[in-house]
Amino acid sequence: MSTFIEPAPAFSAESLRTALREHWRLTNPVLKPLDSERDLNILVDDRFVLKISNPAERADVVDMEVRALEHVHVADPGLPVPESVGDIARLTDDTGRSCLARLITLLPGAPLEGGWVDDATATRVGAVAARVSVALQGFFHPAAGRELLWDVRRMPAVVAASGLAGFDGLVARVAPALAATATLPAGVQHADVTLTNVLAEAGAVTGVIDFGDMHHTAAVTDLAVTLTSVLRRAEDVWRATEAVLRGYQRHRELSAAEVAVLGELVIARLLTTLAVSATRREAHSDNERYITQYDDTSERVLDLLGALNPSELGERLARLAGTRDLAAAIPADELPSRRTAAMGGGLSPLFYRRPLELVRGEGAWLYARDGARYLDAYNNVAVIGHAHPAVTRAVGRQLAELNTHSRYLHGGIVGLAERILATMPPELDTCLFTTSGTEANELAWRLATEYTGGDAAIIAEHAYHGSSKWMADLSSNEWPPGYRPAGVGTFAAPREPGAVPRIEAAGLRPALVLADSQFTSEGILDVPAEFLAGLVEGAHAAGALYLADEVQSGYGRSGPQLWRFALAGITPDLVTLGKPMGAGYPIGALVTRREIADVLADKYEYFSTFAATPAAAAAGHAVLDVLELTGLPAQAVTVGEHLRRGLRSLTDSSPVLGSVRGTGLLAGVDVLPSGGSTSREVARKLLDDLVGRGVLAGLTGPGGDVLKVRPPLVWDTAHADEFVSRLADATRDYGL
C-alpha cells in the first residue's frame, strides 16, 4: 500500500540516459515522459518504454509483471502485450531512493481514453479483456496475493480510509456482492484493462499495457474494471454494457452467478476510483490532473446505476448477458392461467391432472421448481440423458462461432450426413436434413409423389407421423370421430401372431406406405420381421415406396444396429429420423436413394433455413459420439429386457396390468378395466399416481390405455427396478 503514498521516482534526463546506456546499451536516446499514477514511464526513441517502479514497489511484484508478460505471449501469441528487453535493473533516483527498472517494447497505437466510446470499440475492449483473463488462467505467482488500493474487494476499507463522504448506503449495498466473489472463478488478473491501457489504431486493438495492478481476484472483478472504464465514456450505458459483454463472452462465458454481482462490482469500482482520488490528490498535487481525471464521469455513472436496486440492476445485466433465469420469470401461481391465455388453451394441452413446472434435467431425472425429482420414463428426445454436457457444449461452442443456413459449405453437416449414411444399408446413399420428424415425413411425401406419380398414402390404423396438415391426416391416432381424409388408406397393425400385412388400396394410387417401425401409437407392438418385410413388398407391389419412420424407435433404442428396421433385416426406400438426433436441439433427417431425390430435384430445390445448420450438426455429432463410445445402444437391450421381466413379474400379481411388449429400451403395458372404471380411466389415474411417486410415463394405444415406457437410453437396471417398484406401489395404493 505504501506505493500509493511514496512519491514517484525522480530522474533527470541525464540520469535516465546514463541508465539506458549502462543497462540496455542505448546511446543518446530521445526521451519523452508518459503518464503514470505512481511510477515513472519514459518513452525511449519511439521504440521502447522505460518503466521505473515506485521506490516502495516490491521486487517480487515487478518479477510477477515480467513473468506474466512472458506467460501471456505463450498462452495467446496473438494478444498484443509488450515484451521485456533485457533484465530488470536496480537504479538510484536523484533523491537517493532505490528503484527497479525495466525496458519493454513500445506497441503501436494510442490509448482509447479521451473521447466517447462507440459500440464497436466497446465490443473490442470487452473481447481483449476476456482474452487477457483467459491467457492468465494458468499463471501463478506468490506476489499476486498482495494488498492493493485498486482491489475492488477492498473498497469498503479504501473508502473509509479516504474520508469520502455521502456514500455509506452504496458501500453497504455492495457488501454482499463483494463477499460473493470469494466463491467465484478466480486467478491472477490484469485488473486494469481500461481505456487508458488499451491501445488502438485504425479501429483495431494494437496493445494491452500496464500490468502494474495485477493481483489474485475473481475474474468478474477484472471485467467490472473494464466495464466501468467503458461506461464512463459511453453515451448510452446499456448499449455499451451489451457491447462489452458481447465481446467478452465471445472468449469467456460468464456464469449466472458472476453476472448477478457484476453491476454491484461496477459500483464498487466507481466508489474505489473516487476514494483513491480523494486519498491521493492533495498528497500528489503535481499529478492531480491524472489522479482526478475520472471523478466527474464516475459520479455520473454511479448516479445512474445507484438509482436501480440490486435486483433491478442484476436483472438488466442478466438480460444483456443471456443468463436470465426464465424458469422463474413468471410466478408459479400465475403460470397455468397465463399459459392458457397466451398459448392456445385447449389446442396445446399439458400432461397430467396436476401439470408439472419443470426447471431442470440431468441424466434420467427431471426436477420441478419446488425441488421434486422425477424419474423420466417417457422422453426419448433426451436419448443420451437430459442436458448432456457434450451436447450443450458442442452446440454452445458452435453458436459462438457460426450458425447459418445450409447454402454454404460446412464440414460439420457433411460429416454428420456421412456418419448417418454409414449406419444405413448401402442402397440408402442420400441424407436430407430437416428440423423435425414431421418435416422429414413431409419431405418423404413430396419425394414419393414425384417418384411414383401416386397421390395416396397407406398408414397403420392408429398411426402418428407428425403435426403438419398432411401429416395430421396421416396420423389416424389423432383423427377426430368420424373423420377420414381422402387419399389415405390403412392396414391393420400386427396384433396377432403370424399377422400378414394387407394393404387396402382399392380406388387409390398409393405413393407411400409408411409405418413407425415399433408401432408405438398402436400400443407398442412386438413386430415380426416378416410383417415389416411384407409391408415393403406390399408397397412395391402397389407401386408405392416404403417409409420406415424411426423417429421414436431409432437412434439405438432397439440396439447397436441403431434402427428398428435394421433389426428386422429390411431395406426401406425412405427412413425418417427426428427427436433424439440432437438430444434436445431441433434436427431431423430423411435418408433415401439418390435416384428418388433426383426426381424431385428435376423440378424443385429443397431448402429449410434451420435444417443442416452448423449448430444442428454439432448436436448431431455429439449424440452419435456418445452413443458410439459409451455402448448405450447395447445397454438399452440389456436394460429393456430387465425392465420387461420386472413388469411381467408385476403383472402376474396385479389385476390392473396386462400384457407387456417391447423391443430394446421400450415397453408397453396394457392397463385393464377395474371396479367399474374403464381401462382408459384406470390408465389415466395410474399415470397421475405415478407422477405423485416421482415417475413420469405416458399413455398410448388406440384406447389410450397402454402405459408407455420410453426413457432416455441412460437408464440402467437400477432405474428400471425403481420404475417397477413405484408402479407396484401405485397399483396397490388405490386398492385395485
Identify the strand order in the major beta sheet. 14-20-19-18-17-15-16
Structural class: alpha+beta
Provide a count of the helices: 24
DSSP strand count: 25
Work out the helicity level: 25-40%
| Rg (C-alpha, Å) | 34 Å
Which keywords apply here?
16% strand, 736 residues, 7-stranded mixed β-sheet, single chain, alpha+beta, 5-stranded antiparallel β-sheet
Question: What this model shows, in words?
Answer:
- With 736 residues, the protein is α+β, with helices and mostly antiparallel strands.
- 40% of the residues lie in helices and 16% in strands.
- The strands form 6 sheets. Strands 14-20-19-18-17-15-16 form a 7-stranded mixed β-sheet, sandwiched between helices. It has a 5-stranded antiparallel β-sheet with strand order 1-2-3-5-4, with helices on both faces. A 4-stranded mixed β-sheet has the order 11-12-13-23.
- The mean pLDDT is 94.
Question: What does the secondary structure layout of this molecule look like, with pairings?
Answer:
Layout: H1 13-24, E1 31-34, E2 40-44, E3 48-52, H2 59-75, E4 84-92, E5 98-105, E6 110-111, H3 119-135, H4 155-162, H5 168-173, H6 175-180, E7 186-189, E8 198-201, E9 204-208, E10 215-218, H7 219-231, H8 237-249, H9 256-280, H10 288-291, H11 295-306, H12 310-321, H13 335-342, E11 358-362, E12 365-368, E13 373-376, H14 389-401, H15 411-422, E14 430-434, H16 437-452, E15 456-460, H17 469-473, E16 488-491, E17 510-516, H18 529-541, E18 545-549, H19 564-567, E19 574-577, E20 588-592, H20 594-601, H21 614-630, H22 632-651, E21 657-661, E22 667-671, H23 679-692, E23 695-696, E24 698-700, E25 706-709, H24 717-733
Parallel strand pairs: 13-23, 15-16, 15-17, 17-18, 18-19
Antiparallel strand pairs: 1-2, 2-3, 3-5, 4-5, 6-8, 7-10, 8-9, 11-12, 12-13, 14-20, 19-20, 21-22, 22-25, 24-25
Helix pairs in contact: 3-7, 3-8, 4-9, 7-8, 7-9, 9-11, 9-12, 14-21, 15-21, 16-20, 22-24
